[in-house]
Amino acid sequence: MTTQMTIQQAFEHTELWNTIGFEFIKGENGEAETALDFRPDLTNVAGTLHGGMMMTMLDNTMGIAAYTLGFDVVMTIQMETRFIRPVQAGRLRATAVTIDRTRTTAILEGRIYNEDNELIALCTSTFKGVNHK
């Protein structure tokens, strides 16, 4: 799975992606971007976007970036997230960049921004990459 369209189609085909409502913006050269519109059904008991939703957004966005490195399959093996600001409305944008990679792993950084371009969450993650060749 190495072409952008294949990667985009694979993510957009999952039930989780569609249930949450993610939008694929781009994925190429070890980088990716996605978007999500705030919805009340994705909130926690405080009425803010649930941290698990943010982690899922980051994991998917970094996963897209990892796939663009040419792996056939990628799996998250470590993820550390810092939540910086709560979200109660608006459109979110997640970005991912590759920090480093080896033959079988990739380290990525993911960020979520609100409509005012304020940092909402920051994440680093390690992905295991597999090639079937």
From TrEMBL:
Annotated EC = 3.1.2.20
Q: Which InterPro entries match?
A: HotDog_dom_sf, PAAI_dom, Thioestr_dom
Q: Locate the Thioesterase domain: which residues?
A: 47-120
Family matches, as Pfam families: 4HBT
UniProt keyword list: Hydrolase
Q: Which reaction does it catalyse?
A: a long-chain fatty acyl-CoA + H2O = a long-chain fatty acid + CoA + H(+); a fatty acyl-CoA + H2O = a fatty acid + CoA + H(+); a medium-chain fatty acyl-CoA + H2O = a medium-chain fatty acid + CoA + H(+)
NCBIfam families per UniProt: unchar_dom_1
What's the name of the protein?
Answer: Medium/long-chain acyl-CoA thioesterase YigI
Q: Which organism is it from?
A: Candidatus Kurthia intestinigallinarum
